[in-house]
Structures are given as C-alpha cells and as structure tokens.
Amino acid sequence: MDKFNRALHGYDPDEVNAFLDQVINHVEKMVDEIKVKDAKIKKLEAEINSSANVREKLAQYERMEKTMNSTLFIAQKTSDQIKSNAYRESELIVDDAKKNANRIVNESLLKAEKIENEAITLKRNVTVYKRRLKNIIEEQLNMVDEIEKVDF
User: Fold this and answer.
1) Buried b (16+ CB within 10 A) or exposed e, 40-58
2) Beta bridge partner(s), residue 10
3) Which of 89, 95, 115, 117 is nearest to 103 (CA)?
4) From the CA atom positions of the chain, what is the Rg in Å?
5) What are 9-57's pLDDT values in tens digits?
6) What are the two backbone dihedrals, phi and then psi, of residue 6, each rounded to the nearest 5 degrees?
7) Burial of 143 (0-12, 13-18, 19+ CB in 10 A)
8) Contact indicator for 11, 4 with CB cutoff of 8 Å
9) CA separation, residue 104 to residues 49, 71, 93, 120 (Å)
10) Cβ contacts of residue 11 below 8 Å, gap of 6+?
C-alpha cells in the first residue's frame, strides 16, 4: 500500500484521488475478470450438463444395444431350434413315407400273389371244366354212336 504525503488538514487530496482511481481501475478489472470467469463457469456448467445429457443418452444407447444383442441372441437361438425341429420333422416324415411305401409295396405284392393264385385256380378250374365238358361231349357222342348201331 502506498503512503500518502501529509498536507494541510490531512493527506494530499491529489494523491488520495490518484490512489482511489487506481483502486477503482483495479476493482473494475477484477469485476470484469469475475464476469469473464462467471461466463466461463456458466459455459462449463452448460457443457457439464450437456455432457451429462450425452452420458445419459450414451447409457440409454448402451442399454438399447444390450437389449438388441440379447434379442438377436434369442432370435438366433429360436432360429436354430426351428431349424432343428424342422430337420427332425422332415426325418420323421421321410421315415413315415418309407414305412407307408413299404406297407403299400407289401400289400401290393400280397394282392398280386392272391390274384396270381386266383388266376392259377381259375386256369385249373377251366381246365377241369373243359375236361369234364369234353368227357360229357364224348359220352354224348358215344351214345349217339350207340343209337346208330341199334336198328329199328
């Protein structure tokens, strides 16, 4: 702090006024610096709030990403299960079709064998019928021959 020279009735007014001007200038500079610093503080607080919003949004996006990854995992697992079930079902259908085909073939073979046996039986019956008919006709012819031998 400056020392003032003594004058009549106290200190020298010019020195005191000059000192007061210095103090006022210094205080005004300090007020301006405080205003600048207050502005910087407000700007930094806004950035902090903004970064807090960004952090909050980032956390929200990370939660959404986690949910999506979980959903994708579940979808992949479900897809694999559906494929597996479809493959098993197709194998069952093929096996069932093979069994039905074998059953149909066996039934057809049995029917063919039955029809063949019936045809053989019919052939045999026709042969027997022909032989009987031939015998009857021959007997009838013999009777006709016998009638011709008889004189009237």
Assistant:
1) eeeeeeeeeeeeeeeeeee
2) 7
3) 95
4) 63
5) 777 778 888 888 899 999 999 999 999 999 998 988 888 888 888 888 8
6) -85, 140
7) exposed
8) yes
9) 80, 48, 16, 24
10) 4, 5
